[in-house]
Design brief:
Elements (H helix, E strand, L loop, with lengths): L2 E5 L5 H10 E5 L3 H7 L9 E5 L6 H6 L5 E5 L8 H7 L2 E3 L6 H16 L2 H9 L19 E5 L3 H10 L5 E5 L10 E3 L2 H6 L3 E4 L13 H7 L4 E4 L8 H10 L4 E4 L10 H4 L4 E3 L8 H17 L2
Parallel strand pairs: 1-2, 1-3, 3-4, 4-5, 6-7, 6-9, 7-8, 9-10, 10-11, 11-12
Helix pairs in contact: 1-12, 5-7
The structure holds 2-keto-D-gluconic acid.
The site of 2-keto-D-gluconic acid has 10 residues, from loops.
């Protein structure tokens, strides 16, 4: 009899198949099936697989009284009750550095897409507008822009390294200055925003970074400012962001993440100055394969 493995998020099929050789898979991808587990013997699970966006609902974690391992197909642990995991001795494995390059690539892609209006111009061509007259708007050059990175961890640093050859001026905010880093350090996001044209959000999510980019920070960034967020929607006050994009107090945004995914504020959908993505930072085949392989190995080695 195979041990049961609880899946709160799917893996790529080939990697799921490797797990299926060893385990009896129980999928609970939505709220209703997770609630149903409560009356179906939740104590039988010792291991679960989830991803960064899903985490583990606290009530489910409480019900899984024999849980020993949470394998995260991602790097974010902001939707996992770390205190409870620690107190109960539940191990958490993440995919660590495997998605750093993909997320950093996505940040640069989104920034360029926003400045050069790639999505807007694409819509212009598709809608047959070109023969009626040339594209009416000019983009913004990246060279010379002052780019502030909020959260200069692994992903933030990888974004900075990619942006350097574009000739930008880099600065950052972190809880602490990064050793041997030559970019200007700002002890708070407000001072960083006041010194920048573009703010790239790369900080980990969770209560510690919630609304780090608030109304004051957005005000300091100003009407020519652009925000790129590849981290978590929770780091930015989304209501403020949307209001400022709508009335011109902010120039533009490129967003891979949102406060209440998969819900995207309706107002954003009609704006030409935003680029919107459905949380695709790590979504390359190569990266997702490497991540899934890491998850499979972690789960198998724990049994
Ligand atoms: C993943 C993420 O796409 O790693 C994370 O925390 O948010 C994403 O990069 C997500 O975990 C889906 O696997």
């Amino acid at each position: 009899m195979k041990a049961e493995l609880l899946m709160l998020a799917p893996l790529l099929a080939d990697y799921q198949a490797r797990l299926d050789e060893r385990f009896q898979r129980v999928c609970a991808f939505d709220e209703a099936s997770r609630r149903a587990l409560l009356s179906e013997g939740p104590e039988r699970f010792t291991t679960l697989v989830t991803n960064g966006g899903e985490g583990v609902p606290p009530w489910l974690m409480q019900a899984l009284v024999n849980l020993r391992l949470i394998a995260v197909n991602g790097v974010g642990v902001d939707r996992i009750d770390l205190e409870q995991a620690h107190a109960r001795g539940i191990a958490i494995v993440t995919t660590d550095d495997l998605l750093t390059d993909a997320v950093a690539d996505q940040a640069v892609a989104l920034l360029l897409a926003q400045l050069r209006q790639v999505c807007l111009a694409d819509r212009f061509v598709r809608q047959g507008q070109w023969p009626l007259g040339g594209f009416p708007l000019l983009g913004t050059s990246l060279r010379g822009q002052r780019v502030g990175i909020i959260g200069l961890g692994r992903i933030g640093m990888a974004i900075a390294e990619r942006l350097q050859p574009f000739g930008v001026v880099l600065a950052y905010h972190n809880r602490r200055p990064r050793a041997a880093c030559t970019f200007a350090y700002h002890a708070d996001p407000l001072s960083l925003a006041a010194a920048c044209d573009i703010l790239v959000v790369a900080a980990a999510g969770g209560s510690g970074s919630r609304h780090l980019v608030n109304a004051q920070v957005l005000e300091a960034l100003g009407p020519n400012g652009v925000i790129v967020n590849v981290a978590r929607g929770s780091v930015v006050d989304e209501t403020e962001l949307v209001a400022r994009l709508a009335d011109g107090r902010l120039a533009g945004a490129a967003l891979d993440v949102f406060a209440d995914e998969p819900q995207v504020p309706e107002a954003l959908l009609g704006m030409d100055n935003v680029v919107l993505q459905p949380h695709l930072g790590s979504a390359t085949l190569q990266t997702r394969q490497a991540m899934a392989d890491c998850v499979v190995r972690a789960v198998i080695s724990a049994h």
